Each structure stands twice: as structure tokens, then as C-alpha cells.
């Protein structure tokens, strides 16, 4: 999505996190996707001091469509790790921020089994009780398919089952509307966008880099990846002016 001004309004950044935990030893696969609890807390404090308000996709939607104005940014967590609840939630609550955690519905209370083939350590995913704690704290749950699949390798019927089935399972288990989706691995094409719309989602996020134009396509939203080595200044540059040379 192009970063363009709509009615003089700057694009809105959405941050993408995975695990909020100390990184594994050097050489571990995908070590960059670990952000330490202290780093996350410092990032939230820094952005709060700059006057930003962190929002879940639920709370960000009115800003994305231009119904509300404000210095806001989105906060998203992919996969639903227990460490999001244990280590991210305290900082979110401290500053009055909300976030969306994208959950793999058929793996609630299990581990990130989709990573086993890559040699990535198995880490607990939130169970039902923990997801309810997340929701009761004012946070949001989104969908990340039933099994964290590569959608581009699925038939259309299989893809619909993963996309729509995840929504249905989460709503049945948690008793809340699930209106926001995230494409696993950032992989999707126009068919998957159409299936996401058909399933009834209001937004869908990608791993495409960038900020979101007001009034843009809500089902192909770009994000800003926050990784282990992301500095506070680098994060601010990417949020405020879209500069991608710093992390």
C-alpha cells in the first residue's frame, strides 16, 4: 500500500511483534523475532512520552477509515504466545494501550508446531484461560488461520476453511466477535483477500513494509516489523517518516 496523505492526514503505522521474550543463543533460527520484555517496555514508554496512543486493530479501525483523528499506532502480535500475556500486557496496561493478538485457533494451549521443521524452539501458546485474561484486560484477539498454513499452497476450499474456520472457532471458544485477520507468513493473493472479505473480517494485516494510508485497502494493511535489534530512534523514524534504514 502506498504511503500517501489523505486529506492532509499522515499514514498510520502498525507495529508487528512476535515473541516478547529473551532471545535464544546466537545461531538460533529466527532469533531476530524475539524482543526482550525490557526493550518492549522501553519502546512503549518512549512512544507514550512522544504523545502516541497504542491501539488494537479494533480500536485503530476508526482512525484507518478517517472517522477519528489522533496520534495513534497499531500494536499486533502474531501467533498468540503466552509470553505476550506475561511480558507485554503489563506494559500495555501501564500506558493505557491496547493490542491485537492473532491466534491460531486449532493450536490454542499448544505450541508453535508449524516451526518444528525449521528447528525453532517450541514455545507455549496461550490457552483458553489465558486468552480470556487477555480479553478481560481490554485487549483484542484476531485470527491467524486454524493451523498457521501457507495459504498459497492451499486449494480455495482449504484456504476458506482456514480463514473462515478460524474466525468461527475463536468466536465459539471465546464468546467475542473476531473481526481482524493476519495472513500467516505474509503470504496471500487476490483470492485470499476475497476469502477474507467473504469470511466477514474488517481488516487484514500483511508483512508488507510500510504505513497505512487513511481510507486505503483494509484487507492488505502493511506493518512495521519490530525485531530484537530495533532501536527506539529507528522505530520512531519508521513510524513518523517511513524511513526504513534504521532498526
Top keywords for this entry?
247 residues; alpha/beta; TIM Barrel; two-stranded parallel ribbon; 17% strand
User: Which geometry do the CA atoms define?
Assistant: globular
> How far is it from the N-terminal to the C-terminal residue, by CA?
21 Å
Rg result: 17 Å
Ranges where pLDDT stays below 50 over 5 or more residues in a row are: none
Averaged pLDDT, please?
A: 94
The succession of helices and strands, N to C, reads: EEEHEHEHEHEHEHEEH
Multimerization state: single chain
CATH level-3 fold name:
TIM Barrel
Structure write-up:
- This protein has one domain: Alpha-Beta Barrel (TIM Barrel), CATH 3.20.20.
- It has 247 residues and is an alpha/beta fold.
- Strands 1, 4, 5, 6, 7, 8, 9 and 10 form an 8-stranded parallel β-sheet that branches. It has a two-stranded parallel ribbon with strand order 2-3.
- It has helices spanning 37-49, 57-64, 82-94, 128-136, 156-174, 190-199, 232-240; strands at 14-17, 19-20, 34-35, 53-55, 72-79, 100-103, 140-143, 180-182, 203-209, 221-225.
- The protein is 33% helix and 17% strand.
- Helix 5 packs parallel to helix 6 (190-199).
- The longest helix is centred in the last third of the chain and has 19 residues, at 156-174.
- The model has no long low-confidence stretch (mean pLDDT 94).
Amino acid at each position: 500500500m502506498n504511503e500517501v496523505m489523505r486529506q492532509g492526514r499522515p499514514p498510520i503505522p502498525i507495529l508487528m511483534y512476535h515473541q516478547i521474550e529473551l532471545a535464544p543463543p546466537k545461531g538460533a533460527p529466527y532469533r531476530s523475532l524475539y524482543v526482550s520484555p525490557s526493550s518492549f517496555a522501553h519502546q512503549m514508554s518512549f512512544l507514550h512520552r512522544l504523545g502516541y496512543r497504542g491501539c488494537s486493530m479494533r480500536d485503530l479501525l476508526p482512525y484507518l477509515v478517517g472517522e477519528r483523528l489522533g496520534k495513534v499506532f497499531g500494536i499486533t502480535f502474531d501467533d498468540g504466545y503466552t509470553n505476550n500475556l506475561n511480558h507485554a500486557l503489563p506494559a500495555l496496561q501501564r500506558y493505557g494501550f491496547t493490542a491485537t493478538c492473532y491466534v491460531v485457533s486449532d493450536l490454542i494451549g499448544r505450541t508453535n508446531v508449524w516451526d518444528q521443521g525449521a528447528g525453532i524452539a517450541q514455545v507455549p501458546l496461550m490457552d483458553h484461560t489465558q486468552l480470556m485474561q487477555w480479553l478481560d484486560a481490554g485487549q483484542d484477539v484476531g485470527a491467524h488461520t486454524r493451523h498457521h498454513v501457507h495459504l498459497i499452497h492451499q486449494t480455495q476450499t482449504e484456504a476458506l476453511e482456514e480463514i473462515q474456520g478460524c474466525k468461527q472457532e475463536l468466536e465459539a471458544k471465546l464468546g467475542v466477535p473476531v473481526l481482524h485477520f493476519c495472513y500467516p507468513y505474509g503470504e496471500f493473493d487476490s483470492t485470499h483477500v476475497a476469502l477474507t472479505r467473504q469470511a466477514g473480517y474488517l481488516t487484514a494485516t500483511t508483512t508488507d513494509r510500510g504505513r497505512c494510508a487513511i481510507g486505503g485497502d483494509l484487507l492488505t494493511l502493511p506493518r512495521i516489523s519490530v525485531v530484537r535489534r530495533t532501536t527506539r530512534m529507528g522505530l520512531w523514524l519508521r513510524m513518523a517518516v517511513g524511513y526504513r534504514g534504521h532498526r
